[in-house]
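Amino acids appear as letters; backbone shape is given numerically. Here is one record.
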Amino acid sequence: MPDFDELYAEHKPAVYKTCLAQFNDAGFAEEITQEAFAKAFAHRENLRDVSSFPSWVTTIAKRIGYNRRRLDQYRYNKLPPEDLLEQHWNPLVPDDVQVEDINFIRQWILGLKDDDQQIILLKYYHGLNDAEIGMETGKQAGTVKRRHALLRRKLREAAAEHIRTLNFPQ
């Protein structure tokens, strides 16, 4: 079997292009490509014929990508987690008001910088703690904790402003 580094160098561009075409997100495609090659390396003993390596690693990448997207979509559909605003939904509040609140929080999250979005999504949708988020993002746990506290405060302020504009349209 050829050196894994050679296989990686030879086939990474094709796997990346396939992921980019499938998922239409350069960062996601790069992440999935790296993860697929890491998984392929970890399970290289399962590869019987080196000529099938390109299709094998591409299939791994597609499965990882689809599974991650499906999981992210599931978690996104549960938006917002009740603890994001440190409150629980009141069953007496009409569903249309709750849906409006959910949509407001979704739009607020989508309006954040990528780094801030990542912190919120890793915290509330992937259930990671500050240290784990720090490892994922390359930041110190204390930095993540401070950034998270700032984002929660900004969300509360944005929500308060949103409520004021609903109650007192200009």
Notes: Helices lie at 4-23, 26-42, 53-77, 95-110, 114-124, 130-137, 141-167.
